[in-house]
Amino acid sequence: MDTHFLGRVEYLPTYAAMQAFTAARTADTEDELWICEHPPVFTQGLAGQADHVLVPGDIPVVATNRGGQVTYHGPGQVVAYPLIDLKRAGYFVKEYVYRVEEAVIRTLAHFGVTGHRVAGAPGIYVRLADPASHAALPQRPQKSTLVQAPDFTGLGKIAALGIKVSRNCTYHGVALNVAMDLEPYSRINPCGYAGLQTVDLSTIGVSVDWTDAAHVLSQKLVTYLAP
Q1: Which architecture, in CATH terms, is 2-224?
Q2: 191, 199, 213, 217: which one is catalytic?
Q3: What sign does the CA torsion over 63, 69, 72, 73 have?
């Protein structure tokens, strides 16, 4: 997989470039991983509802074709776009999501933070009171037929996931909050959940450079997304 560090790039041209890359790729096209950060922007997923954008103010709102609801991208956030042929990789979408989340969890572990999954809510969360705690969450995904509303008690969301699969090929991806101005999250219901607290590494006491976080996340993604 070729990794490309794009720096700070506008959201819309990057979105268009992902679509163009995916439309043009053939069975022989090598997979790529794009790592970047965006100027402030709210993006709406296909399931997004307009009323989850509360007060956008001066920040643009862009409709996209990824899954999920509204999220925010801004400086101090590492955004990773894996462009992968799942058919060639040999795994399905559900496992792809699991592997992306695992890469984020391993990245957080590198910086001394324990990331958690929450049943029914893609993305990665941390315990606000004790970000290093390894104790399993009661609200973690478990083998159960009961479908319950996600429980975010005591948690903050540190990484958001939104993907698109076209002809077995992925685009869009995952965003890890490193050291951001978190105020814009108060202007939306993040991922469609009113009151869901969003955090970054700096908020929970981890001081790390954007470039360092970007390199660790890219390495973990390359490792965990391998066929």
Answers
A1: 2-Layer Sandwich (3.30)
A2: 191
A3: negative
